[in-house]
Amino acid sequence: MRxxxxxxxxxxxxxxGTLEVLKGINLSLEKGKALAIIxxxxxxxxxxxxxxxxxxxxxxxxxxxxxxxxxxxxGSSIRQADTLALRKRxxxxxxxxxxxxxxxxxxxxxxxxxxVQGKSKAAARERAEALLAKVGLADKADSYSHQLxxxxxxxxxxARAMAVDPDVMLFDEPTSALDPELxxxxxxxxxxxxxxxxxxxxxxHEMRFxxxxxxxxxxxxxxxxxxxxxxxxxxxxxxxxxAIQFLNRVTNYDVT
Amino acid sequence: xxxxxxxxxLDSILPLLKAGVAFTIPLTIVxxxxxxxxxxxxxxxxxxxxxxxxxxxxxxxxxIRCTPLLxxxxxxxxxxxxxxxxxxxxxxxTIGFTLSVGAYGSEIVRASIQSIPKGQWEAAxxxxxxxxxxxxxxxxxxxxxxxxxxxGNSFISLLKDTSLAGSIMxxxxxxxxQEIVARTYEPLLIYCAAxxxxxxxxxxxxxxxxxxxxxLARYSAS
Lengths: 256, 222
Known about the structure:
- The complex is a heterodimer.
- Chain A is an alpha/beta fold.
- Chain A has one domain (5-253): Rossmann fold.
- Chain A has nine helices and ten strands.
- Chain A has a six-stranded mixed β-sheet with strand order 6-7-8-3-9-10, with helices on both faces. A four-stranded antiparallel β-sheet of chain A has the order 2-1-4-5, covered by helices on one side.
- In chain A, helix 3 (105-115) packs across helix 4 (121-134), helix 3 packs parallel to helix 5 and helix 5 packs parallel to helix 6.
- The two termini of chain A are 34 Å apart.
- Chain B is mainly α.
- Chain B has one domain (3-219): MetI-like fold (Orthogonal Bundle), CATH 1.10.3720.
- Helix content of chain B is 80%, strand content 0%.
- Chain B has eight helices and no strands.
- Chain B has helices at residues 3-46, 51-65, 69-79, 89-114, 118-126, 131-161, 173-184, 187-216.
- Chain B is flat.
- The chains are: A alpha/beta, B mainly alpha.
- Chains A and B meet through helix 2, strand 6, helix 3 and helix 5 of A and helix 5 and helix 6 of B.
């Protein structure tokens, strides 16, 4: 099952001050596949995800997303135009949603279509309403974020990220800030996107979800990838000591 | 109150109101609008990544905040003619008050911009919005709501501070009241009348401010 590589990163390093958070990451993901990144907190998984849309700029390495390749070297920064081009190819969903509170749900989903893509308001609205219907929130189009539950806010955030037609969706622990009973609705939407062939990278603590949705799982610890492969292998039958330890800890604790 | 005092009061009301409407209010509004433009630009300069911009803006705020407004007005109106810059009292007052509103206002604007959570910037960036688009569409609208109460304060203070312009020959409300007192020898009566006119103007502004706050509050939960 070799397909076109949608994302490829080589030898990516990132430090915050003297703390090296990513110590040479290599990864590639085919178009239409879902990748789950798991690992203990502080392992660098969120930083890695944030590198994919340059919310963090790697210090060293190379990154290709959908045909755009960027090289990183210490001391040199990426041109603004390249940064924007790359961000248009990626959609990001944050742990704590970050909806724009001064806009309604539908305005949130319209915003980038109008300001970034230059669409007319009418066209943007039509697309936004379709996306909100898709995430099950057609009736909440005119609600402000404070009128929505966490799960609803996160689904609006997914629609907002989808609205600019990204090649890749990035999810940063999308259910970690949610009450347990709201997690299901959000996972359902993500699962549906995966089934439709959206390329996605998900940082998650939901092992069962990772197992079900991901085509490929990467387990990180201390800034390196310690195990990678299909979910049955990484989660079901881990080889390295560090992976076994981590999985024992998380599975003991979310036995339900 | 004697009959004579009542006559004086009745004769004074109209000139006082006129001075307020024709001189105090225009100076207040023009200075505030120009001052807010200066305030936003100064706030952006202070938040800039370019150090010369930060330095110039910081210097300006420092000078204005650490010298008395009355002294600034005297320098502009009485001092500048000695280097060949002669300004009308309205122009001089407008410059003085604009610089003052700009300096104090910039701190309010800066704090409001900085209070917008980093996540808002990141969400906008991740959608491919530029820094300018993010400021205009995401940050300013939210910062405006936060800065409205303190800016309303500044506006009301400014209205009262314009009484200082009387000392540079600007015929505003307070100066007119002083002239009436000089003619009638009724300081208690006339200054109280002037105070009532200020009170009236400020009450209207306070009401306007709370109306605007209510309109802008429509998206906030608490």
